[in-house]
Amino acid sequence: MQVLRFRTLERSHFWVAITVLAIANAMSFSLLVRDEMAAAEARLAVARANNEIAAMRTRSEAAFASQQATLDQIHQEVARLNARLDDRDERDHYALAAANKRIDWLETLVYSEVTGSAPATPAAASNPPLTPGRHGPQPHASSSSADLSDPLVPHAENDLR
């Protein structure tokens, strides 16, 4: 019986040792599982952050493109307004020059009637002098290239003679 008892004692120690090893393995496995779960949660958090960054980048690029389109429209509108202002300034310049020439012509006519002297006739110049203009020197309007039928052409009083 003692032999039998020794063997049962050995078996119980064996089972205790196996149980202790099993518990140790289970604890280390649970630590591994816990570490793996923490790593998975960290990877998930990083993926969410990357998705948010990509969404923010997309929104900012869309906003930038929209602002760029608006700026392009503003630049085009400013260019059109500048062109219209240049055209209007040029028309105003020619109208003012024509009005000044008419006034000069009328002053000459009135002066000649008051003084009784003959009005001075302008000398016909083959190369008329250049008059200062907004975009540099402009040819004098009494040149032969002037269209006398256009009311905005300066010196239209040539039709009055």
Q: Tell me the count of domains.
A: 2
| Rg measurement, Å | 51 Å
Look at the structure and give the mean pLDDT. 75
Which structural category do the helix and sheet elements fall into?
Answer: mainly alpha
Tally of helical segments: 1
Low-confidence stretches: 1-6, 143-153, 155-161
Spatial sequence of strands, sheet with the most strands:
1-2
Number of E-type strands = 2
Strand content: under 5%
Helix content: over 70%
Secondary-structure element series: HEE
What general outline do the C-alpha atoms trace?
Answer: rod-shaped
* Biggest beta sheet summary: 2 strands, antiparallel
Could you tell me how far the N terminus lies from the C terminus, measured between alpha carbons in angstroms? 157 Å
Care to describe what's here?
The chain has 161 residues and is an all-alpha fold. The protein folds into two domains: 1-55; 71-115 and 148-161. 71% of the residues lie in helices and 2% in strands. The protein has one helix at residues 2-115, and strands spanning 130-131, 138-139. Strands 1-2 form a two-stranded antiparallel ribbon. The longest helix has 114 residues, at 2-115. It is rod-shaped. The N and C termini lie far apart (157 Å).
Task: Sum this structure up briefly.
Helices cover 71% and strands 2% of the residues. The protein has one helix at 2-115, and strands at 130-131, 138-139. Mean pLDDT is 75; it is low at 1-6, 143-153 and 155-161.
Keywords summarizing the entry:
mainly alpha; 2 domains; two-stranded antiparallel ribbon; 1 helix; rod-shaped; disordered N terminus; disordered C terminus
